[in-house]
From TrEMBL:
Topology with respect to the bilayer: Multi-pass membrane protein
Listed name of the protein: Permease
Parts of the chain that traverse the membrane: 546-570, 591-618, 648-668
Localization: Cell membrane
Primary location recorded for the protein, binned into one broad class: membrane
Family membership: Belongs to the ABC-4 integral membrane protein family.
Length: 687
């Protein structure tokens, strides 16, 4: 009973003291100000983390990643500066997948292989040579002969243009013997005699042009192409953000490549058109050509590359483009002059010219260097494998994750069989065949490699067969077929697999079940979460959380210092009051608790009001969500709209944190105030 009365007395004294001294409210205002900032800040950071989690999980990472426990690295879904992760292949992947599917909580298991590919793009002369070859392969007919005549005439004009350009550069490279040989070959090729022989023997003539002249038109370029090797049909069904944009999915059992739409736009689109798209996006965001030097540089680059564009046009396209430009500009003229005028852009004419470009000009331009249905030759520059031809079936993107400027949409998809070839990793059947051949040749253990890796996938060589009595081993294999059987796909190893969990499944519990399964069945399986597989993407989110923590520390320190100073001043003013309380029998401990409760009350009420104000501000500011116009940020924020979700624990954490800070700030004033002797306190009150 006495304790209850004492507690009520302390509460009354605390309330009276707070109400009687408005200056003490400064402590509450400080706590409120910090809470106003931290409450929406915590909600925003939590929403960003959740958005990134959804983006990664729904775009191929899955909730968990499974890989070989003996690997030196961990799975990474995006290839970083250090290259691909060092993973040991899961040799018997079908058995591992079957075991994983039996684990409670797992909805889907998708095999994956992250790799870096490269595609070599030739110059405009290479493209014209390829166009002539394509017509030559067609069955002979009058229509084919007419098209061939047009292609050959266009090739001849292009070579004459190359000869004129080389005449201007001759002095700069006159000392190089190889250049002089190519130059002499070019002079022979532009002669009338060469084109008479071309009509009789076109293929040898094309080979001469390609080997001795094509490089005079400029070097080609190698384009990097990050890819995911996977079961394409299963991947598209497992990840809800997958969206087919053009072409079609490869039929089951077909080798093929699905280009990420951002990679298709950035690397295979006509550079002039791609820059116009970038300018359009920038102007839609409110930029102006008149104010942005970088945008004006893009306009200048388009005009500087007109000669390259003209060199890629054949006669038919050039004539059609010239007519379209004359209609758009309202007057006739030479093609190059009309193009230069059309691409002279400013803020006043850009929108109209951009619409005209796609409506009138694009149909007559080689807008993309490759179309669905055509074949690309891929290789992995990190491996010692050969080029692997693969058909492009279409393009795709991950819906709502940044469009054509998002890193995740530059990733392409390829079937597992092709991915193994790119990684230079043989199947078990290929290894067995290689060992059989070695044994037949009598090489035995001396000729067998220490590991399977050096064997690699076997490539076609142009060589005579050798006898078994000796000599160098030459192994031939068939050209990669366009299709594969289910057994062929399952025969090879897999580097990692994405685990998609059922709704409501807890990742930590599923991870524990997988580890238990691996131990029971002696499977070499290890798991990582989406955060670890996300690599630098997860790191960016982690940096945001660290920054919020640092902001909270700074605000907490600021509140701590000012609150301590304010409460110390108030404690000095109350020395006489403390003396009176001590004189009538209040213990020092009770005085200490009263002063401490005063600080806690100020901090608690202030932080609670601040958290409520922060929640109201967040609700008023975001409304129906925060629109994310910058496509490069959409992946981190979970889509084109960020929906900050304020949860009860956000406000509770902020309130408790601020009360803890103010409690620490109250300790010194409460201790010093309660330490004054009653006689001294009474004398000061009398003073």
């Amino acid at each position: 009973m006495e304790n209850q009365e004492l507690a009520l007395t302390l509460v009354r004294l605390t309330l009276q003291s707070v109400l009687a001294r408005p200056r003490s409210w400064v402590v509450g205002l400080l706590a409120a100000g910090a809470a106003v900032l931290l409450t929406p800040g915590l909600a925003l950071v939590e929403s960003i983390s959740e958005g990134t989690r959804r983006s990664l999980i729904e775009s191929g990472t899955g909730d968990l990643q499974v890989y070989h426990s003996g690997s030196t690295g961990v799975p990474l879904m995006l290839v970083g500066p250090s290259g691909e992760a060092e993973l040991t292949p899961l040799e018997d992947y079908p058995a591992a997948e079957a075991a994983l599917r039996s684990v409670e909580g797992i909805q889907e298991v998708v095999p994956l292989e992250v790799g870096m590919g490269a595609v070599f793009r030739g110059n405009y002369l290479d493209e014209k040579l390829a166009a002539v070859r394509a017509v030559l392969r067609e069955p002979s007919s009058e229509a084919r002969d007419a098209r061939l005549a047009l292609r050959v005439a266009d090739l001849r004009r292009t070579l004459e243009r190359v000869a004129r350009d080389e005449g201007n550069r001759e002095q700069a490279f006159a000392a190089e013997a190889a250049y002089q040989e190519d130059r002499e070959a070019l002079e022979r090729i532009v002669s009338a005699d060469f084109w008479e022989r071309f009509a009789a023997e076109p293929l040898p003539a094309l080979e001469l042009i390609e080997n001795r002249v094509a490089r005079l038109a400029g070097e080609g370029e190698s384009v990097s192409l990050d890819y995911l090797g996977t079961d394409l049909t299963r991947f598209a069904g497992a990840f809800p953000r997958f969206e087919l944009l053009s072409g079609q999915m490869p039929p089951p059992g077909s080798r093929g490549l699905m280009l990420g739409h951002a990679a298709y736009e950035q690397f295979f689109k006509l550079p002039i058109a791609f820059r116009l798209d970038e300018l359009h996006r920038a102007l839609e965001r409110g930029a102006r050509l008149a104010d942005d030097e970088g945008l004006r540089t893009q306009v200048d680059r388009n005009q500087a590359e007109l000669p390259d564009l003209l060199s890629r046009l054949d006669v038919e396209r050039g004539a059609a483009l010239q007519s379209a430009l004359a209609r758009a500009l309202g007057h006739p003229g030479e093609l190059e002059a009309l193009l230069k005028e059309f691409l002279t852009l400013d803020d006043g004419n850009f929108d109209a010219r951009y619409k005209l470009f796609y409506a009138e000009l694009a149909p007559h331009l080689p807008l993309y260097r490759i179309q669905p249905g055509e074949t690309l030759s891929l290789r992995n520059p990190m491996k010692l494998g050969s080029n692997v031809p693969v058909k492009v079936w279409g393009t795709f993107r991950f819906r709502g994750l940044g469009g054509d400027s998002s890193r995740v949409n530059t990733t392409s998809l390829v079937d597992l069989v092709t991915a193994r070839q790119l990684a230079n990793r043989p199947t078990r059947a290929e290894l067995a065949e290689a060992r059989r051949l070695i044994d037949e040749l009598g090489m035995g253990d001396a000729g067998a490699p220490a590991t399977d890796e050096p064997l690699g996938p076997l490539t076609i060589v142009d060589a005579e067969p050798v006898k078994a009595s000796g000599g160098e081993l030459v192994v031939e294999r068939e050209v990669l077929a366009d299709t594969f059987t289910d057994e062929e796909m399952k025969d090879g190893s897999v580097l990692q697999a994405a685990i998609v969990l059922k709704p409501g499944a807890v990742p930590e519990e599923v991870t524990a079940r997988i580890q238990q399964l691996a131990g029971e069945k002696k499977l070499p399986l290890a798991t990582v979460s989406w955060q670890e597989a996300g690599g630098f993407v997860s790191g960016v989110v982690g940096m945001g959380q660290v920054l919020l923590f640092l902001l909270a520390l700074m605000l907490g320190g600021f509140v701590l210092l000012l609150s301590t100073g304010t409460l110390l001043l108030l404690a000095k003013e109350r020395v006489g009051e403390v003396g009176t309380l001590r004189a009538i029998g209040m213990q020092r401990r009770d005085v200490f608790l009263s002063l401490l409760l005063e600080g806690l009350l100020l901090g608690g009420v202030g932080s609670l009001l601040g958290a409520m104000a922060g929640a109201a501000l967040l609700s008023a500011a975001v409304g129906q969500g925060i629109s994310v116009s910058d496509e490069s940020l959409q992946f981190f924020l979970g889509g084109p709209v960020l929906y900050p979700q304020l949860k009860a624990w956000h406000g509770g954490l902020v309130v408790v944190g601020m009360m803890w800070v103010v409690a620490w700030a109250s300790l010194v004033p409460a201790w010093r105030g309660s330490a004054v002797e009653p006689v001294v306190a009474m004398s000061r009150r009398g003073d």
